[in-house]
Specification:
heterodimer; A: 530 residues; mainly alpha; Cytochrome C Oxidase, Chain A; 0% strand; B: 293 residues; Four Helix Bundle (Hemerythrin (Met), subunit A); two-stranded antiparallel ribbon; 2 strands; 70% helix
Chain lengths: 530, 293
Amino acid sequence: MSSTTAAHHDEHHDHPTGIMRWLTTTNHKDIGTMYLTFSLIMFLVGGAMILAVRAELFQPGLQLMKPEFYNQLIGVHALVMIFAALMPAATGFANWMLPLQIGAPDMALPRLNNWGFWLLPPAAILLTLPFTLALFGIGDGAIATGWTFYAPLSIQGGMGVDFAIFSVHLLGVSSVLGSINVIVTILNMRAPGMTLMKMPMFAWAWLVTAFLLIATIPVLAGAVTMLLTDRHFGTHFFDAAGGGDPILFQHLFWFFGHPEVYIVLLPIWGFMPQILQTFSRKPMYGYKAQVVSLWAIGALALVVWAHHFFTVGMPVPALLYFMYSTMAISLPLAVLFFCWIATIWKGSLSFETPMLFATGWIVLFGIGGLTGLVLADVAADAQYHHSYFVVAHFHYTLFAGGMMGVMSGVYYWLPKMTGHMFNERLGKLHFWLTAISFNLTFIPQFFLGLAGMPRRIPDYALQFAEFNAISTVAAFVLGLSQLIFVYNIVSCARGGKKATDRVWEGAEGLEWTLPSPPPYHSFTEQPIVK
Amino acid sequence: MSSTHNANHYYVPNPVAYPVILSAGLLTLASGFIFNINNFPAGKGMMIAGALVILGMIFKWMGSVIAECQNGLYTKWEDKSFRVGMIVFICSEVAFFAAFFGALFFMRVISIPELASFDPQFTMYKDFVASWPSAGPGGVVLGKEYVVGHLNPMEAWGLPAINTLILLTSGATVTWAHWGLLKNNRKQLVIGLFLTVALGIAFLACQAVEYHHAYTEMGLTLGSGAYGASFFMLTGFHGFHVMLGTLMLIVILLRSMRGHFDADQHFGFEGVAWYWHFVDVVWLGLFVFVYWL
């Protein structure tokens, strides 16, 4: 798409400076920056937690921590990474880039946008406060049930569960507000001439994401509310003595939990084709097919949840239904994979850091998807369930498919956001260290799972020692190499070679018609898209 | 893009501190609530402080929105944002109620029949017979007696039927008020809204009487097994939404009396009316699946 008029005025408003600028801002770029910064900080916090876990797993036996604390660390690690690192990263990109990509003056509901962000720090405080309170003898630490809150464990748990419940409530409100804003922005703020089928893929993907959030986050809110009343107000939703059922919680949780995977990944599937086409210097392949596939995945995501607990005891017809519907997701997903590969097919490729991450992402996310297909098989899942195979699988989807995708997006848009080029050599070093140490961390976990090592256990049998040692060493390399990422971002924000408007030779789209960095208020007069 | 909107300028509000203070209030309220239910004395004070901050911020925030509206800062373009946003918000509310309806159906159709179907050799609930409404196989104390399994439900064709009539009528009165607004008939608008508010309060009063009856005479509580939990959580959350809707209607009524809104632009009115219809529809679901069937 091309624009003829990209008028931009840097109007001078009296906006507050210093900390008040960030507390009170209604500007989509400021809010996007806050989301992305928050995401990066929480990524490091969640990473530090899991490095402590990996250190404990370096050897068999209990060396560093009590099992109770181990349980708290893995649960909070997952909640932090999913809700406070991955989801805010996607929302940060949406805030920064959607208005620029569709030629809008800002997000449609700027005050709500500010509130959506400022619900996140309180949620993070609620999630992690119990660790601190326990040091002062208040309560017994953070939630120790894993991120899934399964009843009856979560009903028996301590005060940390209550904190996690309210943290989820705040995160949920934030997500719903963010989704409302994204949907309204996409439907109402597009530049004249930008029909739905001319929208950037990122906008389409976020539209599906927002649809999934609106459909599922309130169900999670309902589920944890029932948990709260079961814990403190005498209801029996998840208690068989009153006619309830612990498995009901699993249904409610995974009705949210499975779409959540796509909520995290869809925004990445949106901008990844844009990155691939930029560095292939040819238009993305199969725009319509990708749009249809995104919606197909969004729809299927809502009807496959029970494959997360095949082993819990369900009637055979239910098992078959959930197996086939899960496998059906691989069809639209395969269409997306073919489109991504066809986009780079016979292109004039160059491998700057974003493209390195993008191509690495296709391969590694592919492994995550294919191992998911294995787990979707009811008969096979009985072997793999609750083993390290599952851990390795979802880290291939959520770290490689999620985080590495986010990193690709960060490197792609960082020059646009800051106006400076980042250090390309450090970026490439970051990629290779991340990709290699990631595989060295998680390939051993596939083998551990196949050999029968259960997840969520701080100790293990002697035969698993070597693979665990390799995994721990690699995890530390993986964790430490993220410091390069942080350094690169910070130094890029502070200075460096000036970035051009287009930044990348093959970049297409409205955001590249603006200066780097774009003015504080961009597209106050909307461009006309032909 | 439609050609109707004013392509020149979209209103982007100035920086504002209400949202971040509101979040701080929510953090205080939530932590206070957690401390309170875990028997720490500091909880109550924190809850009150948090709730006051939240109320104050909602008041200020909504006040500035109304002022912007009266100052003519919103055109058709902003108006459409509000409309789409409200529709999406109501969809999310539907999903919230769906979770509780889902729990009701699951317990009624799956878990209770299953609990009654086990081989007596392998279950601790040997004499449990599946039925609805059920207190579950473990038994609960209802008033003065101990009940296992079947319990007496709340009768549908008493107060609940009257409440259905009240809410359906209130849906009609709010629409009648809307017609008044469209015809520039201010009197019809105000009377219609006043009747709607009165009906909303009447509904809440009936609901309070019903809860009192349930707790004191029937012994039916939140702890009365699957039926008690689903009954009180569904009707309770619905009642909470009716209360919010009534408060919103009162705001709209006061605004109408001050001459706000005109036949062309009145999103504030319509947003509240949509919300009220949503609450109405949820009640119909409740009446059919919680009370009647």
